[in-house]
Structure formats: structure tokens, C-alpha cells
Amino acid sequence: MSEMIKVGMADLNVCECPNALTTLGLGSCVGIALYDPTTKVSGMVHVMLPDSTKIKKNENIAKFADTGIDALINKMVALGAKRNRLVSKIAGGAQMFAFSSNNDMLRIGERNIEASKLKLKELGIRILAEDTGLNYGRTIEFYSETGQLLIKSVGKEVKII
């Protein structure tokens, strides 16, 4: 029997096959699932903000794309994953409120997506699939056994990427 391991907001966790990871209510936040297809070690981080360098006195590294991804990789490597085999799937980064503005503070979902992609690219981690942007929230489940990311949204078909 496999276990569904919860990842909270601004949180991260790892698991081994056959367990799965889930995070609820991704609005402008981005859920990043990392996966080593050989060992099936999996990890997920729920990032709220793009850049830790903009915030003083922050102890929660999982809150930010730049530090959360690094911390997640370290935990996965400790479980037996190899950095050079990691691949990713990402979801979230919605624009939850309609407005017409170029104010960066309001484009948080978009900035979270950009920061997540940039960090993964810097680390040489390929994004296999994504379900990002638009204007609705998502709950995601990542299955270590298959490498599938299941996405649930209110009023939408369940999507598997």
C-alpha cells in the first residue's frame, strides 16, 4: 500500500516508490516535482515567491524558487537520487485575479513560473511537462511509480502530464 505524502504551502518533501506526493491549492504558487527515473526517488516543493534575495530574515527556504529547488535536490540526493538524472514537471503559477497592470507585485504567478524555469535550467534539469498560468488553482499529485503528475482543478477535467 502506497502512502500519499502531503507538501504544505512553502514546504517540500521527498519520497521513494511506491509513495506519492501531493500539494493542495496552488494559486499563484508553483508546485515543482523532481524525479530520478532510475531510482524513482521523487520530490516536490510548493514555492510561493520567486526570489529569496528580495526578503530579509527569511528562514523558510522552501518558500522561494531559488532556494527551495536546491534544498529539495539535496534531500533527494540523500535518498539516493542522482542530480544528473533529475527531470521535472511543474504546475501552478496562476493569475488568480483579473486586473490590467504591469505591476510586478501583481504578476506573482508569472514571476514564480519564470523563476522556477530559470533555476531548473541553471541546474540542467529538463522540464518534461507543465500545466502553468491561466486563472485557476490546482491541486497536484506526483506518483513516483510512474512519474505522472495528476492535476485537479475545480470545474475542469483531471489532467495527467
UniProtKB/TrEMBL annotation:
Protein name (database record): Probable chemoreceptor glutamine deamidase CheD
Enzyme Commission number(s) from the entry: 3.5.1.44
Q: Which Pfam families match?
A: CheD
The major lineage groups are: Bacteria, Bacillati, Bacillota, Clostridia, Lachnospirales
Query: Kind of enzyme, top EC level?
Result: hydrolase
Q: Which Gene3D superfamilies match?
A: 3.30.1330.200
Q: Which residues are the signal sequence here?
A: none
For this protein, the record's PROSITE patterns field holds: PROKAR_LIPOPROTEIN
Q: Which UniProt key words apply to this protein?
A: Chemotaxis, Hydrolase, Receptor
Which family would the database say this protein is a member of? Answer: Belongs to the CheD family.
